[in-house]
Specification:
Strands 1, 2, 3, 6, 12 and 13 form a six-stranded mixed beta sheet that branches. Strands 10-7-11 form a three-stranded antiparallel beta sheet. Helix 7 crosses helix 8 and helix 15 packs antiparallel against helix 16. It is globular and about 65 Å long. 36% of the residues lie in helices and 13% in strands. With 431 residues, the chain is α/β, with parallel strands linked by helices. The protein has two domains: 243 residues, Periplasmic binding protein-like II (D-Maltodextrin-Binding Protein, domain 2); 171 residues, D-Maltodextrin-Binding Protein, domain 2 (3-Layer(aba) Sandwich). The N terminus is likely disordered.
């Protein structure tokens, strides 16, 4: 996942474009879902054997995907495999800019994709859009059983009883560490600070930590470490100015003292990739890239803060079904949903993605697989500590004020308590 994908979490609001988890009976879990090249055409993958080919009628669909280089290369190979086995054609394209901005332009113009890949946090936001609609309810088109996925994952793909996508991975941020610089990964904040102190020398281009500290998604774990919530989705209340969140900000400020001066994503991740920092806090989308840069790369859960596990936001990666499908030929609908069914229920695909991309599986059969790497297991444990990103449309109004508050604190323009108070006031006013 690249900078553009992660910037979303700063970008969710309709007025701005900034921006931004985890089993059950699996269909095709016996390897018949493509492991033998049959693509489960005996119907064992729950897709009635058509795999989107509509009983021999081939179709074409457009897929937008804004991925890291390693992710993009992997999914291109899987699309080739799906096309070969189904006879369908999937035209994968990069959106050419921030994905949500491009969708806002392309769908109303009738030139949007039939499907796109993103975390679940857009489901509520787009589901309530009426003119024009942005999502397509594929409840009657998808044959795979939703019991194939973990409960959190299948819930993430639905809103008010409609099915707007299929899930294939969960994600959150965890602690990367360079084993050549860190003897033992820290379990507590105090241990982490001690190690950072050994390496932090900004005058000579050395830092204690690589961390985009002005991005609410990345820092959510520490802000919410004491039990507070940036946004209380159950009660639809803005709680970022709670005492618990303010205590969490104190922990975050401690970490902020050890990062490069530019809090932007690229500046931060490069410092770790170049061996200039012992730690990075980032997501599994960087595992494929960083493993090629760091010879001895480790991943562990975030350190505890006064005995509390940081409650990071987690997201479920989906193949979204676009409103473009409402007026499309059935063969296009079958192609878009068929790819999603094939990819998300193919145990070989999910296992390989876990091994090579660090994707945290949500396919029930693979979730219980003891062969998952230590890195993926670390991310999965962090997901267990975290909370899913709220999908309620009110969350759109949260991202920008919180981002701006974090920026003011990082730039020493405002103390953290006042910054969170201001953010909460701005959010409430917007709602």
């Amino acid at each position: 996942m690249n900078e553009k994908r992660r910037t979303l979490l700063k970008s969710m609001g309709g007025s701005t474009a900034l921006a931004a988890l985890a089993g059950c009976i699996s269909t095709g879990g016996d390897g018949g879902d493509g492991a033998d090249g049959s693509d489960g055409s005996d119907g064992s993958d729950g897709s009635d054997g058509s795999d989107g080919s509509d009983g021999g009628t081939t179709g074409t669909a457009r897929l937008w995907a804004d991925l890291s280089d390693a992710e993009d290369q992997a999914i291109s190979g899987y699309i080739d495999q799906y096309e070969s086995e189904s006879g369908n054609t999937v035209n994968k394209e990069a959106p050419g800019g921030e994905l949500d901005q491009q969708l806002e332009t392309a769908i109303p113009a009738g030139d949007g994709p039939d499907s796109w890949i993103w975390a679940h946090d857009w489901v509520g936001r787009f589901a309530v859009r009426e003119e024009p609609p942005f999502l397509y309810d594929a409840s009657d088109d998808v044959d795979v059983s939703l019991d194939s996925y973990t409960e959190t994952a299948r819930q993430a793909a639905q809103f008010d009883g409609s099915l707007y996508g299929l899930p294939f991975a969960s994600e959150t941020v965890a602690l990367f560490y360079n084993e050549d610089m860190v003897d033992e990964p820290p379990e507590t904040m105090e241990e982490m600070v001690s190690i950072m102190d050994e390496h932090h020398d900004p005058d000579n281009g050395q830092y204690g930590l690589s961390y985009p500290v002005t991005d609410p998604y990345f820092v959510s774990g520490f802000i919410q470490a004491y039990g507070g919530n940036i946004f209380d989705e159950e009660n639809l209340e803005v709680t970022v100015d709670s005492d618990a969140c303010k205590r969490g900000m104190d922990a975050l400020e401690t970490l902020s003292d050890y990062v490069p001066a530019d809090p932007g994503y690229e500046s931060q991740i490069v410092a770790f990739a170049d061996g200039l920092a012992p730690f990075a806090i980032n997501g599994p989308w960087e595992l494929g890239n960083l493993s090629g840069e760091i010879d001895n790369l480790g991943v562990t859960t975030l350190p505890t803060v006064d005995g509390n596990n940081p409650r990071t936001y987690s997201g479920i990666q989906l193949f979204y079904f676009s409103a473009m499908l409402a007026d499309a030929d059935q063969s296009t609908v079958d192609t878009a949903t068929g790819l999603a069914e094939w990819y998300t229920t193919n145990a070989d695909v999910i296992q390989t993605n876990a091994e090579e991309q660090g994707y945290i599986p949500v396919l029930a059969d693979v979730v219980g697989n003891d062969d998952l790497s230590s890195e993926v297991q670390a991310f999965a444990r962090q997901v267990d500590h975290g909370v899913p990103i709220p999908t309620h449309p009110d969350m759109d109004s949260v991202w920008t004020p919180v981002t701006e508050a974090l920026e003011r604190v990082f730039n020493d323009e405002q103390d953290s308590d006042a910054a969170l108070d201001q953010a909460a006031s701005e959010i409430r006013e917007a709602l």
